[in-house]
Design a protein that fits this description.
The chain has about 200 residues and is α+β, with helices and mostly antiparallel strands. Helix content is about 20%, strand content about 30%. The chain has a six-stranded mixed sheet with strand order 1-2-3-4-5-6. A five-stranded mixed sheet has the order 7-8-9-12-13, with no helix packed on it. Strands 10-11 form a two-stranded antiparallel ribbon.
Length: about 200
Amino acid sequence: MKPAASIRWLVEEAALRLAVWSAYSPEVRTELGSTALGIDGKWWFFDPVALEEAALAELLAHGEPAGVVLTNANHERDAPGWAGRFGVPIYAAAPGAFPFAVEAPERLGARCGLKVFQIEGAAEGERAFYHPAGLLILGDALIHLADTGFAFLPGRYCLDPARMRRSLRGLGSLSPRWITFAHGEPLADAGSRLRALLEE
C-alpha cells in the first residue's frame, strides 16, 4: 500500500489540532483512514497508515508524538513502525491480538482528557474516543463511505450486530463538531445525524 501523500486539517487551534489522512488498500479494497489528535503540543495517532515524509513533517511541525492508538484488533496497520520510530507506546484493547506490547486505551483518559467508549459487538477490542471539544474518533462500528453513506458497520463484519447497536447508544448524548472514521470521510457538525442513526 502506498503512503498517503497529504493530510487534511479539520481543527487548527492553539492547543488543539485535528488532522486526517487516508490511503487505498488493495488488500481489503477500501480506504483506510487515520486521525491525528494534537493536544497541547502532543500528537496521538489513531490507526495510522504510512504518510509521505513531507506530510509527516507538516504534522510534526506542530507537536511531538505521544502515542499510537488502535481502535480495534484489526487495525495494526503501521502502528509498530510509528511507535518504534518515535519511541511512544501503543494503546489498544485485545492485547492478545497483537505481537507487540500495548497499554489499555482507557489510560488515555487520564493522560490527555479523552473519554473512552467500549463498543461491544463490533470488531474485537473496539473503542471510540471523545474529546470534550466535540471531537469523536471512531474505528469500524460506524462508517462513512461513498457507497454506504453514514452507516453502521455491515453485520457480516461484526461479532454481534445487535449488541454493537445497543452499545453505540452510549454515544447518543454527544454533540460532535467533527467525527472521524477508520473508513470514510470526516463529518462536520454531526450531532443530529449521529443521534438519528443510533435511533434506527
